[in-house]
Amino acid sequence: MSASSTKPYFMRAIYEWCTDNGFTPYLAVKVSGATRVPMEFVRNGEIVLNISFGATSGLKMDNVAVAFNARFGGVSREIYVPIENVRAVYASENGEGMAFDTDVVESAETLVPIAPEPVQEASRPSLGLAAVSSKPSAVETKGDAKSASEPQKKFEKPTLKIIK
Question: Which of 46, 66, 107, 126 could form a disulfide with 134 if both were Cys (CB 3.0 to 4.6 A apart)?
Answer without folding.
Answer: 46
